[in-house]
Amino acid sequence: MKKLLAVLLSALMLTGCAALPGEERSFAVVLGVDCREEKWQAGVRIPTYQSGGGYATLTAEGASLGEALARLNASAPMELHYGQLRLLVLSNEVAETEPLQELLHALAERGEVRPQALVCVTEERMQALLDAMKPSTGSRLSKSVEAMAQARQAQGAAPEATLSALMRMGERQQPVLLNAGLENGALKLSGGWLTDGKIIREKLTETETQLLSLMQGRLKQGTLALEGDTLTLLNADCVIRLEGGTARCRVKLRYGSSTLTEEGVSRAVEAALHKVTGKLASAGCDALGVGRQAMMACATVHEWNGMNWQEQYPALTWVFEISPEKEA
């Protein structure tokens, strides 16, 4: 694939520069980017603004992403605008090869792009995914996508992968992207993709994403699937401390009825967390921000740079202390 940043920046300068009133714009709710057989593809999902409502998918191809985006804008009924963008969807082929941060910064430099837009990766064909995006009865597509994402985040099954949040992350914490797929022909936002800060490396299932959310302190209540049982969490708390080459993770769980004993719950949770941290290590993805603790322990920037954290992080030993408490 060709270098992404230069061609993308050129495309951003070609489109959407003039100030236009809202009624003279086509507002993209979703933007998809793909590349197959050396051809870049860009697609958007936009309202038709016809009687009875409805949404349409526009796509365009080009030898570069810049050319594809320029052709996409030219094919729209009105000037494309990204101020209502809810999802930025990258194909796994693009996300596995192109520098993520360069792409995100280039998009963000175009002021109209909504910073709260979620960044997703999909293994689906982009055309099929875009066509499947339809609003729930009585609501706009933008509202439907937003409500779905918020519900999945509350369940811990989806990372909070907004454009602005991902751009803030640096070498001390790598981002996790949201997975976008199809289930029974409908859009499903669930699971995540681990990155090393540059490209995606590993995919997380829905359950693994919940466990990651638990360690991040985002999942406090809800349903958590484990090997041999499903826990109804009433309250969860997790603290991670870096002690030299050991990351010590203390987890307290208060839960409802279960077929497992407290010891069984402890073993199941520990085994599941070991699997997730193993994936984090193999991907070189410090999604838990352990690197922040390593940096704080350094007296100088020179000491931090000399630590070579990217090599040390995958070699960390994880120790889990699980404290389960079954509600009487």
Brief descriptors of the model:
single chain; 328 residues; alpha/beta; GMP Synthetase, Chain A, domain 3; 2 domains; 8-stranded mixed beta sheet; 4-stranded mixed beta sheet; 12 helices; 14 strands
Task: Describe it.
About 35% of the residues lie in helices and about 30% in strands. The strands form 3 sheets. It has an 8-stranded mixed sheet with strand order 4-3-2-6-7-8-9-10. The chain has helices at about 5-15, 65-75, 90-95, 100-110, 125-130, 140-155, 165-170, 205-215, 260-285, 290-295, 300-305, 310; strands at about 25, 30-35, 40-45, 55-60, 80, 85-90, 120, 175-185, 185-195, 200-205, 220-225, 230-245, 245-255, 315-325. The chain is of the alpha/beta class and about 325 residues long. The protein is built from 12 helices and 14 strands. The protein has 2 domains: about 5-205, no CATH class; about 210-325, 2-Layer Sandwich (GMP Synthetase, Chain A, domain 3).
